[in-house]
Amino acid sequence: MLGPGGVVLWYDFTLNPRNRDTRGINRDELRVLFPGLRPRIRRVTLAPPLARLIAPRSWLAAELLERVPVLRTHLLATLRLTRGVE
Predict the structure, then answer these.
(1) Could you tell me if 67 and 59 are in contact, meaning their C-beta atoms sit under 8 angstroms apart?
(2) 70 Cβ partners below 8 Å, 6+ apart?
(3) Which of 28, 67, 73, 86 has the most CB atoms around it within 10 Å of its CB?
(4) Cβ(38)–Cβ(80) under 8 Å?
(5) Cα separation of 34 and 30, whole Å?
(6) pTM (2 decimals)?
(7) Domains of the chain: which residue ranges?
């Protein structure tokens, strides 16, 4: 149970093409998993295989590629308790 002002912090992948046995959680599923919590959700993290390839050679190139939404493979969310909901 979340107390007043409580927040759930969520960070997880949305897709992992190298491992078909795993499945990420998308935005809609997050909202269903945490009813009554107000979500703020952002796509973050340059796809790790791409980051491992690019970042050692050029940190700037990695940062620029991370700005391309389709190349971000993780969700970062804060889910805050709304007033009057337990």
Answers:
(1) no
(2) none
(3) 73
(4) yes
(5) 6
(6) 0.80
(7) 7-81
